[in-house]
């Protein structure tokens, strides 16, 4: 056995102070009666998140479809107004309708969840 | 059956006897009997406080760390798989907590200058007391990089039981052995001036 081994093996033993165990048990009992931590409200969060994601996807889809390569590469003389603007303008009512429906849906879901009792949500 | 044996068989089992076994106590706690945890605390308070002390070298802090470790053990009792010994799982939870707590609280770093401060250079020709020498060794251990320090602390706490140390640390025994070897080499280098000039038997009086 080396010197270091001998020194480290002879580490002094300390005794816990009187009342240590009762302090631990007091904390344990407090922990046991404490209400469980609130769970993340997935049921409230998910519909909103899904709606937002869907709206983003729809908006992206609209933009991508409006960027028609043929229209973009057309000669400026033959198309004085850019093709992108025409495409967007022609779909404006659709976009507005989707945004309106989405907003109404989010508002309706929010009101519905707010009105529900807590026990039904978890 | 004799009368005594019959009496013994109907005698109610006391709380302490009932919870003599950690496994039984753990099952009772999981079943909602919080008081059963008291027997676990009573049995393991000494070892956990001592293990914490070896990490932080401060009695008050050691008790604080041990108390936190007991809370982790209480909360995580359901995660104990019965295929490993309760003590192994308990030490693993506690030592993990101590290690991360030490990382968070303050970096322990004792370089050679600090060790020289413990045993001034002027004393080297004389016999220094064992306490100073032991203190120098322990400070040198505390100054090791965490992976070497942790394995060294646990290994000596477990009475140099390599297998148990590797189980607690969830490391292959070869890795533990290699880290211990490297830690010893580092300690020997750090303590070369301290250990070679002092009669070591003084440390074990």
Structural shape of chain B: elongated
Largest sheet of chain B: none
Range of strand content of chain A: under 5%
Report the total helices of chain A. Answer: 7
Describe the structure.
The complex is a heterodimer of chains A (122) and B (205). With 122 residues, chain A is an all-alpha fold. Helices cover 70% and strands 0% of the residues of chain A. Chain A has helices spanning 3-9, 20-33, 42-66, 69-72, 83-90, 92-115, 118-121. Chain A is elongated. With 205 residues, chain B is an all-alpha fold. Chain B folds into two domains: 3-11 and 109-190, Winged helix-like DNA-binding domain superfamily/Winged helix DNA-binding domain (Arc Repressor Mutant, subunit A); 22-104, RNA polymerase sigma factor, region 2, helix turn helix motif (Rna Polymerase Sigma Factor, Chain: A, Orthogonal Bundle). Chain B has twelve helices and no strands. Mean pLDDT of chain B is 79; it is low at 1-13 and 198-205. The interface between A and B is medium-sized, with 25 and 38 residues.
In a few lines, what is going on in this structure?
Chain A is an all-alpha fold.
Break the fold down into its secondary structure elements and pairings:
The complex is a heterodimer of chains A (122) and B (205).
Chain A: H1 3-9, H2 20-33, H3 42-66, H4 69-72, H5 83-90, H6 92-115, H7 118-121
Chain B: H1 3-10, H2 15-18, H3 22-30, H4 36-56, H5 59-75, H6 86-105, H7 112-118, H8 130-142, H9 146-157, H10 162-169, H11 173-190, H12 192-196
Helix pairs in contact in B: 3-4, 4-5, 4-6, 5-6, 6-10, 7-8, 9-11, 10-11
Question: What descriptors fit this protein?
Answer:
heterodimer; A: about 120 residues; mainly alpha; B: about 200 residues; Arc Repressor Mutant, subunit A; Rna Polymerase Sigma Factor, Chain: A; 2 domains; elongated
């Amino acid at each position: 056995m080396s010197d270091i081994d001998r020194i480290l093996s002879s580490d002094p033993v300390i005794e816990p102070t009187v009342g240590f165990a009762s302090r631990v048990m007091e904390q344990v009992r407090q922990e046991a009666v404490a209400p469980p931590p609130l769970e993340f409200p997935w049921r409230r969060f998910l519909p909103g998140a899904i709606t937002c994601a869907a709206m983003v996807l729809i908006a992206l889809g609209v933009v991508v479809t409006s960027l028609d390569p043929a229209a973009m590469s057309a000669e400026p003389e033959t198309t004085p107004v850019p093709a992108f603007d025409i495409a967007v303008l022609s779909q404006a009512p659709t976009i507005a309708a989707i945004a309106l429906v989405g907003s109404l849906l989010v508002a309706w879901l929010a009101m519905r969840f707010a009105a529900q009792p807590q026990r039904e949500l978890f | 059956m004799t009368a005594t044996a019959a009496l013994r068989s109907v005698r109610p089992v006391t709380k302490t006897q009932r919870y003599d076994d950690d496994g039984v106590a753990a099952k009772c706690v999981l079943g909602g009997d919080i008081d059963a945890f008291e027997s676990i605390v009573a049995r393991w308070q000494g070892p956990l406080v001592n293990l914490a002390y070896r990490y932080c070298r401060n009695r008050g802090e050691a008790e604080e760390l041990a108390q936190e470790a007991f809370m982790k053990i209480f909360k995580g009792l359901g995660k104990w798989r019965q295929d490993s010994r309760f003590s192994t799982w308990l030490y693993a939870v506690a030592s993990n907590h101590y290690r991360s707590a030490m990382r968070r609280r303050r970096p322990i770093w004792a370089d050679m200058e600090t060790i020289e401060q413990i045993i001034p250079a002027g004393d080297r020709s004389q016999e220094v007391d064992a306490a100073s020498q032991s203190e120098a060794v322990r400070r040198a251990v505390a100054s090791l990089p965490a992976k070497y320090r942790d394995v060294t602390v646990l290994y000596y706490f477990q009475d140099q039981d390599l297998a148990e140390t590797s189980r607690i640390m969830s490391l292959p025994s070869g890795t533990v052995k290699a880290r211990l070897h490297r830690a010893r080499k580092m300690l020997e280098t750090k303590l070369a001036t301290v250990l070679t000039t002092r009669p070591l038997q003084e440390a074990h009086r």
